[in-house]
Design goal:
The protein has 15 helices and seven strands. The protein is an alpha+beta fold. Helix 5 runs parallel beside helix 7, helix 10 runs antiparallel to helix 11 and helix 12 crosses helix 15.
């Protein structure tokens, strides 16, 4: 009996008809023959080229629009816009060919260019609409800054190579020629930069050949546009002699991207932890090209000595900035990897002991032949519950720190008495095996989040149990309307140079390398986060009560009037 494995409905997609797949191959083959014909018979390029470009853009748009029913719904809008863009471009090409056939001559630039610019807008909008991996504000700003570096460098290179002479010729050009001479370079640069941004932001996907074909097509399109602008101002289409080989190669790339429109890359099993190096380097590569071009142009120029010094210094600074960016990227990646390793090591060490205890206690409780009394079973059950609560508190602390900013912490403020806080803290701290005493200013009513304040006291008592010699003192009082929380211990205290850094995440001060004392370095960071969420602050001083450490938390305006 043959069995079949059914894939989830979301993963099943109707297969393309074989004839439609063969059509892709036929179109690409025809475009290749057209390219070859324009190279072998350049005098026929003006007749053959437009038909091939019309075939390429029309096929790319038609293929995409016909595939929409099989394209993932998250990408359907993006591909619909891009397909519409290619169809609009094909309509523009057909309109130019029609005018050429009816009048025998057509200007290189005119009203049909509005359709071509519209096609650029639709394709760029489609690329931007592709689903991408969500990024934070700082990463988004970094991506845009990198892209601006590439955009400014590319625009400057285009100006030096082509546009400076073009602008001079546009002074006596028609309004359509002036408009086209401005719009095409802007559209080309915008499209190339958008491809870089989209490629980086889609790092949650594996290698996407569709974006590669699009990138190649846009590069060829930009080259062809610049050549056309250089030769077309003031001329007819026939006299301009566009680089049809580049246009045809671009349309072939678009057709190949369209042929794979319904075959998105597989999502990664995990989010990309680092930006691909090529994506970071691309804008700076263009910047290096700009600097090389400037150096070549300046070498034969006559300049004053002070201008030569400024130019040389600018080259040095530009090179140092690029080198510094490279070093910073590597350094940041190493830091992230180190923090990840430290976190895994610390948390595994922190959770191993209570988890081992819980498993051991439960094994004894589940063993019916175990010679333990009912009293011992109750004691083991109590100890297992304490260790489980300890692990739960560690996980809660990690979730709190993972949220990043204390401003994002939600406080559930209530009016409670200081005695309630002290009693609950003393009762819960019994799991740490330390002798806890309290010194409470009675009669105080507080407006705080009692659960968070409880978390602060438990973390501080746990810290005292870990680094002290068996005694801890909880002090709760007031200074004006401010609530003062202090936890003292009888340990060695904190060295002066670590008094500030101990409040940072995963920082253990002088015990950072001491594996004999368990700890993850998150307890005091949580205390600081809770204090900040209440509008308060934390501090450290030597304990005058027990001779060890004194951790102090001040929560302003939390004591209600009597």
């Amino acid at each position: 009996m043959q069995s079949t494995i059914q894939r989830p409905l979301a993963e099943r997609r109707p297969h393309a008809r074989p004839s439609f797949r063969r059509a892709h191959v036929v179109v690409v083959a025809l475009l290749a023959l057209t390219i070859l014909a324009t190279i072998v018979y350049p005098e026929k390029a003006t007749d053959i080229g437009p038909m091939g470009v019309l075939l390429g853009y029309g096929s790319a748009g038609t293929i995409i629009l016909r595939k929409l029913s099989r394209i993932d719904r998250r990408e359907k809008k993006a591909w619909a816009l891009m397909g519409a863009g290619f169809v609009v471009a094909a309509i523009g090409i057909f309109l130019v060919a029609l005018i050429q056939a009816m009048t025998g001559s057509v200007a290189a630039f005119g009203p049909p260019d509005a359709l071509f610019i519209l096609s650029y807008v639709l394709v760029i909008a489609g690329l931007v609409s592709l689903p991408h991996f969500p990024v934070g504000l700082s990463q988004r700003i970094r991506i845009y800054l990198d892209s601006l570096i590439g955009a400014v460098s590319m625009a400057a290179l285009m100006w030096i190579i082509t546009l400076e002479d073009l602008i001079g010729r546009l002074e006596n050009a028609t309004a359509w020629e002036k408009w086209a001479g401005t719009a095409y370079p802007v559209a080309d640069v915008a499209a190339l930069i958008v491809v870089v941004i989209v490629s980086v932001r889609r790092s949650t996907f594996r290698f996407d050949p569709r974006l590669v074909f699009f990138s190649l097509g846009l590069i060829l399109q930009a080259i062809a546009d610049l050549r056309f602008l250089d030769t077309g101002i003031g001329n007819t289409l026939t006299d301009a002699q566009p680089n049809f080989a580049a246009f045809l190669l671009a349309s072939m790339c678009y057709t190949m991207a369209a042929a794979n429109a319904d075959r998105p890359p597989r999502p990664r099993a995990y989010a990309e932890r680092k930006t691909p190096l090529w994506a970071v380097a691309t804008p700076y590569t263009v910047a290096v090209g700009l600097m090389v071009t400037l150096a070549t142009a300046a070498r034969g120029a006559t300049m004053e000595p002070h201008l030569q010094i400024l130019l040389a210094a600018s080259f040095c600074v530009g090179g140092l900035v690029i080198a510094r960016q490279t070093v910073a990227i590597r350094e940041n990646r190493r830091l992230v990897e180190k923090q990840r390793t430290d976190l895994v090591s610390s948390i595994s060490h922190e959770l191993r002991t209570p988890l081992t205890a819980v498993v051991g206690f439960l094994d004894v409780l589940n063993d019916e032949e175990s010679p333990v009394t009912d009293q011992e079973r109750r004691e083991l059950s109590k100890l297992a519950g304490q260790q489980a609560r300890h692990m739960s508190r560690i996980v809660a602390d990690l979730i709190l720190l993972a949220r990043g900013s204390p401003d994002e912490m939600t406080l559930k403020e209530e009016v409670v008495t200081v005695e309630q806080i002290a009693t609950e803290a003393t009762h819960a701290s019994g799991q740490f095996g330390v002798n806890v005493e309290t010194d409470v200013e009675s009669g105080l009513k507080l407006r705080v989040d009692p659960g968070r304040v409880q978390q602060v006291l438990l973390n501080l008592v746990s810290n005292a149990a870990r680094y002290g010699d068996g005694k801890a003192l909880i002090v709760l009082g007031r200074e004006g309307s401010d609530l003062i929380l202090e936890v003292h211990d009888d340990g060695p205290g904190v060295p002066k140079k670590y008094e500030t850094v101990i409040w940072e995440r995963f920082e253990r001060g002088m015990n950072r390398l001491n594996g004999a004392i368990p700890g993850s370095g998150i307890g005091l960071a949580v205390v600081s986060a809770v204090a900040t969420a209440h509008g308060g602050r934390t501090g450290y001083q030597a304990s005058e009560r027990l001779g060890g450490a004194c951790f102090r938390v001040i929560l302003p305006d939390r004591v209600l009037p009597s």
